[in-house]
Structure formats: C-alpha cells, structure tokens
Amino acid sequence: MAARPMPRGGNANLTREIPHLTGVVVGVALASPETVLVDNLVVATLLCDDATQLLSREHVVFFNQLTSPDLSVAQLEKARSTGDLEQIEVDLRDVPPEVSRIVVVAYINEGLGHRRSLGQLREARVRVLDLAGDDELVVSENLAPALSTETGLVLAELYRNGPHWKFKVVGQGYADGIAGILRDHGLRS
C-alpha cells in the first residue's frame, strides 16, 4: 500500500490490503508559527464501541494516561520518527472486541479567553505507519486550511469493518474543544 494524500472523509482498508499487518503507529503533525499554541496542543485517543461511544474515562489515552486499560493502545512519550508532534501505537491483535473505533483527536489545553484557535495552525496532518517497519501506509491531506475558530478536532479513526481494520480521515472541528468531542462520544461531565 503506497502512502497517498487522503482527503477528509477518505478511508483505506489497512488489513485487507496488507494481510500481515498486526500493528500501526498513528502519527499526528500539528504546526503553527505561534509556539504558545503548539505547546498547548494535546493529542488524545478515544476507545469507542460500535456506536462511537467512549467505553469509559479510562479509555481516553493522552499525556496523563499513556495506555489503554488493556495495553493495546499507547501514546508514545517520544515519537519514533521525525515530523510528528505525537504518535500513538496500536496493537491491532490485542484490541478487545468491545472496541470498534479508535478515535484520534487534538485540542487546545488552555482556559477560555486566550483567543487561540486551531485556525492558527499551518499544518494538521495524520498518518499511519506499519508498526513493524515504519513504512508510511496512509497520510492525510493538510486539514488546517479548513479550520477557523475551532479548539478541538477529530483527526481520524481506526475502525473495525468485519474482520478488517480501516482508517478514515475525519477532520471534524469543534468550537467547544475537548468538552464537545467527549460529549459527542458519550462522556458526560
């Protein structure tokens, strides 16, 4: 499978095209001329059921909770390759059956009133690498030009389709940041 720019809404059938694929690394590249914005960006992963509802608070993987309860998803403390702000490692063989979707999000982690938004990004891309060899399998188009006042963004999702794992570029922004993303994925405060 050759890496190709994938537009918002595009998807790739990872394990059908690469039957031996057992794990992936999802890389997230976020860049802005404003260093303060980049320093306040958080990448998180939500482990969801087939209705895209979060299984529990413990199924949010981010800087303060680096692994899922079953250890199938882990946020790497240091990216394995250059170009990514954050990387998430997923062992597809160990993802429990109740997890149907693994949603990758980014948001600004700061109080309201700072007037920062994801519209200030010059780059927002997500890509998939083969865990075994770091070969780039899929890369999204730059999602940043479509952003304006949003403070949260669903970048992409890995999801089950029968016996296979697929990857979809989502690119959906949220004006209310992580609160809106979590609410839409079934987590009430």
Automatic annotation (TrEMBL):
CDD domains (alphabetical): TerD_like
Gene3D superfamilies documented for this protein: sav2460 like domains
Domain of life: Bacteria
Domain TerD intervals: 6-185
Family: Belongs to the CAPAB/TerDEXZ family.
Protein name, entry field: Chemical-damaging agent resistance protein C
